[in-house]
Write a structure and sequence with these properties.
The structure is a homodimer. Chain A is of the alpha+beta class. Chain A is 27% helix and 22% strand. In chain A, the strands form twelve sheets. In chain A, strands 9-10-11-12-20-16-15-14-18 form a nine-stranded antiparallel beta sheet. The longest helix of chain A has 22 residues. Chain A starts with a helix and ends in a 20-residue tail after the last strand.
């Protein structure tokens, strides 16, 4: 052991020298960061990212949809719909068209609004099938013709010889279609296409031909978002010479409507399933701008004019890519090409959702379906909070605090406009989808408040209280009465109880800071509820009945329907981020806790395991550790509370190498609106917010030798880890602005001062580092 | 003949004495005019009026619906839907519930929004059937328990023992339900009920329980109005103790929605066919206020608060009835009870549609489906213009010019917000229904402009031009090319051509006054187009083919589908209101014209006649004169252009006696938003606007001995016809403010000065009156 330490000191000294190498104080905005990003990463299989064009945090995500999969046919659920959460699967060979809204990396599908397809030849009103593309307007394509960078997508439509180029502003998708020379061309506008489509998703659509270069309209859909209003305004750079439509579901009785022909060159089209065409004579280079709004066609027109007037495709592309470069320049990193691709693509993926959800004049649709005026904030939507409370919103607190403040304000507005008074659970486009579990809006709000990113105490405390006491929200009555959610009332009871307890702790922190001691104490007590579903005799979390009995039979591998949600007892038992000391004790103390963690990462799994677990593939697992599902995300950092903190450093690098890859299958699971990516960015920097709502970032190990990060307050944080490698993965010594940090965490305040964070790395662990009680990260009990 | 004249002079002298009897200068607002009105008139058969409660020109018409008749079942049209244009048929024995929107007297059905039904006992989600009412929530009732006066409706629901009392403000329906003592009660709120309903009319509905006395919500329907947004806010004077709903058409896939029970005491209900109940413990006297808005639930809440805060049912009833009394006091008339019932009920029926279509703060939904802010005008909707251009809007120019100015502004806004740029044809609730023929918005706009009720020249001329040249509007291209609509292109060609020609004349008048001579000349020429569908050899209007040939075979009785719309050549040949002299000549001169008119009123009809004619019953006819359909309305006045003007006076009284009766069948046809009633009011006053767009009112004969009319400018017009009776139906002599009027018309200016209009009546015609050319009313050709 002694020689081992000597070696470490030697190595540390060498590496410390390297630490002085960089001393830039600003990011080089002239540098091109775009080319590091590969939007294709994660577009195959489970990543559920899209390759198309968008502006940072824009509401338009203009991207190819490669197939049309209904979520049900005659009431029977079609599992394949799950593959099309982002509309695109890299394995597909046809493109149906280019629609304007896409989730980034979600585990549930929706959107795909306002599909556009350029065609030549006869008009087709149906998309056709992948196996027989000629039956519809879709086209074959080859990946060889695809180019994707932030804000830009290009492809050649093989069946029509049309070259497609796409870019986008925040509210506007911009298309350039280069048609074969001398040929006529048409644009198909399919208002019944959608992702998570079914016979009836489009409740109503309306389309007006305002003049020969301008369309307006909207559709209302009942998709995953129960009531989604998508207004649009579309301009062309060439005149429409002929147009028409079919309503694929004619109303049964038209009344007097129909007394004159309305299907051809009649400028008003209304119905349930409108598919229209617009014909152009020799279009050659047709440019089309599609502005969206959730409030009105007037809103869409305002967005169109404000963001694109007097600029063509090329100019708008330059503008959007400049915006992306500015956002990507938040990080300046060194590393090999694969590492940079992964890092910058991750950064890119953190800046798509949540998305701006208001018009340029601040009008937006609220949870009450009414139109509101945003005063002094930008309204955002797409809150996949069960995922993103963990690392994405904490990342924003560091890098984009103004945006996160606006997101929190948007969430508080949500709570005010919702009839329930609750913070969002999984919300998008002015709808609450109630997806997943917990009330993690509480975590996001409290974390931002604790870190001084937001104020608004009164609104906040009211929303936190309502979110955690609502009598009809998932088993909150049981939870408050029994201190846990019983299995006989909800078969996801353990996951729910554990997450409620953490959320309660986050509320406790907010109430404490706000000075409401009574409320704080109430939630401090609730934060211990994790114990009520923890079988101390077993040392694991376990479902429990209302009468207190533990569930029988029970296996640590039991998952969905057996007490857990997207996990099992092996994973979920580690879910007490706010009281890791208490958890450690409950598991049997330091040694047993370490043994459990070690086992988690290495245990062999029976093949039956995968049958019962959603979202999990064998490639996504390390032992029973499933990085593709979020409940595991903090686990690797838990060694920091034990006597073997260095094991975090070992397993971290394994996870990063194994589950983030520079290719189409690059993500081991859904990116989940940037949560997977935010985890990666934090971990690459060398720390992670294990317990949002505390001000601590728990130590990991840097992944790259050098990163410079532009913090939200404009200061620069340089993270240096010279010589770091798969070999040199262990942290030997840490200094912040020259001062040694012995603790296993950094505080938010420390980091926000910026400066130089220096990691001395080595190939063997510094096993004596961070063992003192005072060096340990936060835990509710000590 | 000489003795005859002497007698007349004697009689005239006697009657002239009576003329001095009245000299009131203001209407007595203290007098109760309400009790003259019987809203039950016209509620059986063809009248299509409703008996329920509304405020003058209010958007809420709260009235019982006595059956639910879909307009189609499995795609098959159900003719009975036509009976329920106003939701109520007097012959029915059950009440389904009380819905908040109803047309008054239309020939097409729609609306019936937001149905409320108070019940006791178990909740039922279906309305049940008339033959077996116990299968649903509907109730039996007896007319004995009904009371209806302006602004008030009362009935006892037999099956529940609930006494119902209804009143309304402009935007709010107010219900009082007296439940049996000691019993619990529930309110059914059926968001899928509607008039002109079908499986799918309700595109989407949303309902929120804001607190235990307040609901908000909306529904979007695809009825006759293709896209109709009805938002509401509902308050109760007692707390809801329990509530729930069923969605009678569950979405096929709920997504994550459904993870907790949402059908009971869950405050958000959304779907296609929502039927909800709200339970009250011992409600006894439950008061419920239902505010409507077309813009948002916030708009509905504003309307609710502004119009009803701090007032209960009784206070609001008093306020609304005071408003009605003020409006009804526009006329102070003498006559027998039946005559007064008919007169005041007619007056009442002219003040329901068009209806105010904006929130108290001026926000309204426009034709572009966007929400607009009305600046300096009140937005109105329900424009049944093919009917109402004839007498209703002209009546408003006399009695309610400010309202008519706002209606015209609403129509001009319609043209600006419509993608077509056209004036309304048949529009309601921000939708154009394209019902009936012509572009009679041109008549309404021009008439108001000619009478100095509106200005807005530029907007007006643009709208007039577009309305009359739109290439896709009914055969306008043919009409402009050929000078008539050919039969091979449209089987309503004659009616359409004749009406276009009149509308063109109205545009000519507007252009003339606006000083646009080029436009005026163009439309002056178009105004002669009636000649192109007039077979001069026959002396009647007749369908014609594109190549100029006249239709063969042809009968003067041919109607729908044979060249005519709601009429035949016998009626439509008289439809040249702007060029009666030209028409007279085309028919063969004075004698033949008189013979034709005489024949029209007396000819026997073959029974087959009725089979091919919509809206016509044998009781509604006098010869071939069909007063129930509007094309006939001016005909009786045409004798004024002939050498026998007194025949107008004879037939007028026949028509008034025969077709307007003080009972449930009191109207011989659809009241058509007040057109039938406005005809009656004009005719009762003794003159009629045969040709709106001219400033002349053509002489008829007063129906009552005394009427005092409050003109729109505040002046009073007293119309005296002492001794008038069925016997003394002939006008002998007319004086206006003492000065003799020898002409067969009054000008708008003359009448608007007010004063005393004195008719000397007699039992035999004054055959020598009004024979001079200079006494004849306007005609384009002389």
């Amino acid at each position: 052991m002694k020689n081992y330490y000597k070696l470490l000191i030697l190595v540390s000294g060498l590496l410390a020298f390297g630490c002085a190498d960089h001393n830039q104080t600003s990011i080089d905005n002239e540098k091109d960061y775009l080319h590091y990003v590969d939007p294709i990463i994660g577009t195959n299989g489970m990543g559920h990212t899209f390759p198309g064009a968008c502006a940072p945090f824009g509401i338009v995500q203009l991207s190819p949809d490669t197939d049309t999969v209904p979520h049900n046919i005659d009431g029977k659920y079609q599992p394949r719909v799950y593959e099309y959460c982002a509309g695109y699967q890299h394995k597909d060979s046809t493109i149906v068209g280019f629609s304007h809204t896409h989730f980034s990396g979600t585990g549930h599908s929706d959107l795909g609004d306002i599909l556009v397809m350029p065609i030549t030849g006869p008009v087709k009103y149906h998309p056709g099938t992948q196996t027989d593309p000629d039956t519809g307007y879709r086209s074959r394509f080859s990946h060889d013709t695809e180019k994707a960078t932030p804000g830009y997508y290009e492809v050649m439509l093989q069946d029509y010889g049309v070259k497609v180029q796409l870019t986008a502003t925040e509210h506007v998708g911009i298309h350039r279609y280069t048609f074969p020379e001398g040929q006529d061309g048409s644009i198909i506008l399919d208002l019944q296409h959608g992702i998570y489509n079914y016979d009836g998703k489009t409740l109503w659509a309306n389309l007006r031909v305002e003049n020969d270069t301008l369309l307006t309209g909207y559709r209302i859909t009942n998709g995953w978002a129960r009531t989604n209003y998508t207004y649009f305004a579309i301009s062309f750079n060439q005149p429409i010479t002929d147009y028409g439509y079919r309503d694929l579901q004619q109303p049964k009785y038209n009344g007097m409507w129909g007394k004159f022909a309305v299907n051809h060159n009649f400028p008003e089209m209304t119905g349930r399933k409108i598919v229209a065409y617009f014909h152009f004579d020799h279009p050659e280079r047709l440019e089309m701008k599609v502005a969206l709004s959730a409030t009105s066609t007037e809103g869409a027109l305002r967005n169109l004019h404000a963001e694109t007037d007097h600029r063509d495709f090329d100019q708008l592309l330059v503008e959007t890519q400049a915006k992306w470069n500015h956002e990507l320049a938040i990080v300046d990193a060194e590393g090999n090409d694969d590492q940079k691709a992964m890092l910058y693509t991750s950064l890119y993926h953190t800046m798509i959702n949540p998305s701006v959800y208001m018009d340029v004049d601040g009008q937006y649709r609220g949870l009450d379906h009414n139109v509101h005026q945003a005063k002094d904030f930008t309204n955002y939507t797409v809150f996949s909070l069960w995922d993103t409370y963990r690392a994405l919103h904490p990342l924003f607190n560091l890098l984009q605090p103004q945006r996160n403040a606006d997101m929190v304000t948007s969430m508080l507005k949500h709570s005010e406009q919702s009839v329930h008074g609750l913070l969002p659970v999984w919300s998008h486009n002015a709808n609450e989808n109630w997806c997943m579990i917990g009330y993690h809006g509480a975590s996001v709000v409290s974390d931002a408040y604790v870190k001084d990113v937001v104020r608004q105490e009164n609104t906040m405390l009211k929303a936190l209280e309502r979110s955690s006491t609502c009598p009809y929200y998932v088993n909150l009555v049981d939870y408050q009465r029994l201190g846990y959610v019983p299995f006989d009332r909800n078969n996801g009871c353990v996951s729910i109880t554990l997450e409620y307890a953490y959320d309660d702790w986050a509320i406790y922190q907010a109430a404490l800071k706000a000075g409401d001691e009574v409320m704080a104490e109430r939630y401090r007590q609730r934060a211990s509820n994790w114990r009520n579903t923890f079988d101390m005799s077993l040392g694991f979390a376990r479902p429990r009945y209302s009468d207190g009995r533990w569930k029988e039979p029970f296996s640590l591998f039991d998952t969905e329907g057996e007490g857990f949600v997207e996990g099992n007892s092996w994973v979920y038992s580690f879910y007490v981020p706010h009281d890791v000391n208490g958890l450690m004790e409950a598991m049997g103390g330091d040694a047993q806790f370490i043994r459990n963690l070690d086992t988690l990462f290495v245990m062999p799994l029976p093949p039956e395991f995968f049958e019962n677990t959603e979202d999990v593939t064998e490639e996504g697992l390390m032992g029973c550790y499933n990085h593709g599902n979020e409940p595991a995300h903090h686990i690797v950092y838990l060694y920091n509370w034990t006597s073997q903190p260095y094991k975090t450093q070992y397993w971290l690098r394994e996870i990063m190498n194994r589950f983030y890859k520079n290719n189409i299958d690059g993500l081991c699971g859904n990116d989940d609106c940037g949560q997977m990516s935010a985890w990666y960015l934090f971990s690459a920097m060398g720390f992670y917010p294990v317990c949002p709502g505390s001000d601590q970032y728990v130590l990991g190990a840097p992944y790259l030798p050098y990163m410079k990060v532009r913090l939200g307050n404009g200061k620069m944080l340089e993270i240096k880890a010279p010589g770091v490698s798969d070999e040199n993965r262990y942290v030997q010594r840490v200094t912040l602005n020259g001062e040694e940090i012995t603790k296993l965490y950094f505080t938010h305040e420390q980091l926000m001062h910026g400066g130089e964070l220096c990691f001395e790395m080595g190939s063997t662990p510094n096993v004596s580092r961070g063992l003192a009680t005072e060096d340990k990260p936060y835990s509710m009990t000590h």
